Amino acid sequence: MIADFLAERGLTLSEEKTHITHINNGFDFLGFNHRKYKGKLLIKPSKSNTLLFLSNLRELIKKHATIPVNDLIKLINPKLRGWANYYRHCVAKQVFGYVGHKLFYSLWHWAVRRHPTKSKTWVALKYFINRKGQWQFHGWQKVKDMDCQFNLFQIAKVPIERHVKIRSAAIPFDPQYQEYLARRKSKRQARNAWNEPALTAL
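Above: the chain's sequence. Below: its structure in token form.
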């Protein structure tokens, strides 16, 4: 039926890229997995994309075996933030925890290999800090005679933000919807760049 519909408009389906499956079995699209679980549709990060992301992080860590810890954190954090921001609107809390767990072990092996003659307790105290029962990878660096701490981005703590569809009748030129649209407008809490003026309270 779809092929006939497209044929009238001079279009054809690509057999290589077309996959027909039941919604209960699910399918991957743009890095997301769409599948119904007991009649409820859940959209999650696809397994293949998650494993590929972890593989890339492991390669990055393995490639920089002798790099200072602060520089390694600077390489990993943007990747973690970008990946988390892409998936933070879907059912990804469990996947975020899984990625954080696997990344912890990769960084632990990285730290242990750097100090083969030191005890694991010494390595843990040097590269990790205990925050409320969770060990966080971190480093120190002197900046203008001040000790600055660099912390690994905690992807497991990224909050899930559901997208709420806007009312179809709401338009910015109608006075009755101005309050509704003002509540939906997100407020920037920080600068986008270091050279922007600081935010001041009105």
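The chain has a mean pLDDT of 85.
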